[in-house]
Amino acid sequence: MYFKVSKKDFLQALSTSARAISNYSPLPAFSGIKIEAEKDRLILTGSDSDISIQTVLLQSEDCPLEVTDNGAVVLESKYILEIVRKIDADMIEVEMVDGTLTKISGKSAEFKINGMPAQEYPLIDFAKPAEAFTMSSPMLKKIINQTSFAVSDKETRPVLTGVNFTCDATSLQCVATDSYRLAKKTLHLKNPVKFNITVPGKSLSEVVKTLDVESEVEIAVNDRKAQFIVDQTIIQTRLIDGVYPEVNRLIPLEFEYELTMDIKDLLGAIDRASFIKSDGVSVIKFSLSENACVLSSKSLEVGSSTEVLNTASFSGNPLEISCNGKYVFDAVRALEGDLVKISLCGEMKPFIIQAVGDDSLIQLVLPVRTYA
User: What single-letter DSSP state applies at residue 245?
Assistant: First the structure.
């Protein structure tokens, strides 16, 4: 194997593929990046068995690439990334000189590192699933950012560690919950498709990091895997087995109270109140009436905080409700717009957080019981 390639493009492709590599790889080969050189292209693959990323560098005017000898090798990701990053040259030369010993050079710098045979790298099936649809990368990024923060970080119920994507015809519903809060995003697709899958939250975090350009993303799914295809990069993830709970019945439809407020003002007030924690958790209390809206927090160890919400408007009988400050902060921060609307049913009943004028995103938070 011998090829010359633009340092900038090679480093970017290596960095993209390396995102799939875990520090705790189940197989030694998964700590490396598989590099395949053939004719006018380089194919780079990284994986940790749960998520795999394959990116292709094609020879073009924008990407100088010259493959002299075809071949493949697996190189330790941390070493090849560091070497390419440090070489001060516009073009990088990569050559297998003896078995899997690989020489990487540029200008007067030369490195040799031991690789692994490409045959030892597990075979990953990147065949495209049949069900597929497209959306813009900003929209996909928005969906992930508005829902994935609500997935569970506990493995006791594995299905809750992912975001559930359900589509019947042209209505796509994306839901995440950890049993104490819920985020639901609904949007319309142009072409009808049908599927019900749960994608690990960790995989979606890697998808977001790759969506740094404004382009179309093709999403292809079946009952075993999901692919997110952006330009010449495929991000493939396993799915979480299990039936995702029916969450629509948990969302209240009728409300007796409503609080409206400027989003930035509410985020600031929650942030100021949340530094007071008890056992590592910040519990905030809303004391609401049509005359005044007050946000407070209290801890026997730390002290207390009280703030009048001057930009708030409340309708309904006086109400006091306590909740996890982080959950409300995360939910409000995910909204787009200037005003937030909080719809409530009662002191110990779930409440809904939405941006005024946007019904496509629903955030639900369960209140907590306080005895002070």
Answer: P
- 7-18 and 77-86 helices, crossing angle to 10°: 150
When the candidates are 3.30.1230.20, 2.170.150.70, 3.10.150.10, 3.30.565.10, the CATH number that belongs to 131-248 is 3.10.150.10
d(CA 90, CA 223): 44
Token pair in block for residue 157: 């119920």
Asked if 150 and 183 count as a contact pair (C-beta separation under 8 A), the reply is yes
User: Which numeric CATH code is attached to 251-368?
Assistant: 3.70.10.10
Q: Count other Cβ atoms within 10 Å, centred on residue 35.
A: 26
Per-residue pLDDT of the chain (372 residues; tens, 9 = 90+): 999 999 999 999 999 999 999 887 778 889 999 999 998 999 999 999 899 999 999 998 888 999 999 999 999 999 999 999 999 999 999 999 988 999 999 988 999 999 999 999 999 999 999 899 999 999 999 999 999 999 999 888 999 999 999 998 889 999 999 999 999 999 998 888 999 999 999 999 989 988 877 788 999 999 999 999 998 999 999 999 999 999 989 999 999 999 999 999 999 999 999 888 887 889 999 999 999 999 999 987 888 899 999 999 999 999 999 999 999 999 999 999 999 999 999 989 999 999 999 999 999 999 998 765
Whether this prediction's pTM lies above 0.85 is answered by: yes
- Do residues 39 and 57 touch, judged by C-beta distance below 8 A? no
